[in-house]
Amino acid sequence: MHKVPTFRKGGVHPDDKKVFSRMQPIERLPLPGELVVALSQHLGSPAKALKAKGDTVVKGEKIGEASGFISADVHAPVSGVVKEIRRVTLANSIVCDALVITPDSEQPEGEAPAVDWRTLSEAELVATIKEMGIVGMGGATFPAHVKLTIPRDKKIDAFIINGVECEPYLTADYRVMMERADEALQGALICAKATRAPRVIVGVELNKKDAIAHLKEVVEAKGYPIEIVGLKVKYPQGDEKQLLKALLNREIPSGKLPLDVGAVIANIGSCVAVYEAVAQKKPLYERVVTVTGECIANPKNILAPVGTKVSDLLAFCGGFSSEPEKLVSGGPMMGFSFFDTDTPLTKGFSGLLALTGEKKVVTTACLNCGRCVAACPIGLVPAKLYRLIDNGQYAEAMANSLMDCKECGCCAYVCPAHLPLVHGMKTGKKLGRKK
Amino acid sequence: MHTPTMTVSSSPHLHEKNSTASIMYQVSIALVPALLWGIYVFGFRALLVTIVSIATALLVEYLLGRFSGESTLSDGSALLTGLLVALNMSPSVPLFIPVIASAFAIAVAKWTFGGLGANWANPALAGRIFVFFSFTTPMSSFVTPRTLASAMPDALASATPLSVVKTAISGGSLGMDANALLSEVSYPATAFAQKIAQATGFNAYTIDSFLGNVGGCIGEISALALLIGGVYLLVRKIITWHIPVTYLASVGLFSWIFGGIPGGLGLFGGSFFPPLFTGGLMLGALFMATDYVTSPISAKGQIVYGVGCGFFTFLFRAFGGMPEAVSVSILLMNVITPTIDRFIVPRKFGDTREQRTLAKERKV
User: CA of A420, closest CA in chain B: separation in Å?
Assistant: First the structure.
């Protein structure tokens, strides 16, 4: 029998809870009354504001400029007036400046230019992608132009599209695969061209069989040189290390990037953004976000402009059906909980979850049961790291590969003592770096 | 819109349905078949010993909790320790012995080292060893199980098959394996086991010790009942196969290969199965050696630990002068556990052979 690929070491199987929103087609959010466009929507240094209070902006106009090698431009999601520049706290607790834009009542739709991307060179493709402010949309928000710029001495033999969406609840990528497969696949081909990758593979978990079938149909109909691979369901397969192991059986060593083992990985949503950027000159100023959870009245997949406040998303979904304990941006395993419903949507905001509180369980001492060790996909000993951090031995924890922890949450998910292991890792990294 | 108060906490925001208490209760449930069999064959006295052990463990845990200002009774570990102490008692012990054993287990073996999670030795085992060396005679005189009662010669009434064999070998009866020695001293076997023995070709003593028709501690006699509990724990993923399988397999293999030597039979003169079903091995391998706190944290470490337990158990059984091979072996490996955890760590992702060669080349 053909073996379904997956990664080997560690991993967990949480209930995928995608049932709330998986059958909801992507809906466009009606224009909100105010948008809060943050200048730090990506990994790296924040963009520099190009507009001041009172300036008018046109939809798609650049309003924030990249301020370093790892940084990305920010564009106006609507035409309107800059009401003010305000300090905001994002869902992931980053504090940065944001342009507050009051949209005009009339939003003129410009004619989208149709560019044949096949005629563009690698450098032109990357330049356009940079200009359009594309970042990775899976959550890490790494600037796409940096990722797609391959040093001359490196050879990429595979470009991998991440359609795994292994986080429970989230269905944004799934809907994109169902509704915008052709754009996503063309976006992947653009990326493959920019990185000179001869092989293109899409990895999708088998809890999305219809998406796999649909992608295969499109690939066949259009004759794209793309492989679609179904993967056994296991969290955190959407992490690039695990995905690369599952698809190509390659392991990225500690501190290295996928391109060190000859591959580049991009999220399926980013591929759509790349396609729109290159073929339609459309900057990344809106994204698909899944609004779901036990406490949402009508869970939906929404296409919303960057800068939309969480309260507007909630209102569009009919508000809360019951009182939530937590609001989470992203997935439940790695997402950030936050409390302010004025928090704005950013480029990496893949899901908004309103979760019921779990039954409060008392934490006990570590039992040394080894579940965290068995669950860690990186081969760390979380219990030991946690003990070291708890004792203030940060250097010792760093020497035990603390920095290789990617906070996937598998250890804390399985811990019977309910120890806040990920919280410990995050604290340890912060304090360890300081010393 | 009404905005409820939100909790902010670190990810992950989901958790598997398990807890320290649920694990402790499930292990306790897994011990019920062995306990019921013990009560059935040894009668009311066994039940009394069990009640006394558990009550003492809970009481001491409660008092120490009161004293130190924390309530740990609800984590279920004291109940499990009390139950394990009871299963490790001979049914005929005076009742003050389980009281001392349970109190020692909870107060000395667990609390003085910092409570649950911080103890270096399995509390129930420490309690058993403590009372065994303090009150050796009552701890090593057993009663005949109900199923053998009519056939048991008086001279063997307080012995176990293992002690019978040991006495015989140290008395100079050489050239026979365990089952032959048992038959030599006319240790009885049940009619049921003899019937199965005729049908399957297995030895009747092996079958009786597998089913639990032998003398011994309350909870250790029936390998079958313990295996039912062990399989339950494996299926519920409370324990993994690493420790029990390596422990049992290594005792079996060592006994098969070297077990003939003390009896004068030479290499490969021993048998594989009888050593697995006798003494406290099954209880030790499934429920004592697998104690989380005192066994290694990684799968690789657990394999080393299991083989270590097996090696020492065989050594003490075949060449040692005293009973308690299983308890002492596990305690010994408990001591080595931190060292195992220090040196045997999981392979880190990305640390492939290829990478190591590359790193070496770079250094050269």
Answer: 8
